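Form P-L/3: holo structure prediction, ligand zinc ion.
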Amino acid sequence: MSVQVCARCQTTTRQPVVVAIEHSASAGAGTAYACPDCAPTFPRQRDPFDASLLAHHRPAERGR
Ligand SMILES: [Zn+2]
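OUTPUT (holo model):
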């Protein structure tokens, strides 16, 4: 995994957390990363990697 710079504390982290995704990015990389410590301080956005949201809306599977 690549090293990213935290968007808040400007510290390099080996475990970057996606905190924002710019859809209108024309320069290619429009993703903002944060270190695990700063990630909770960012406002919640639509995170495609947050499986917990899907699990919340997903109806419980009852057997087969
Ligand atoms: Zn940080």
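COMMENT: The chain has a mean pLDDT of 77.
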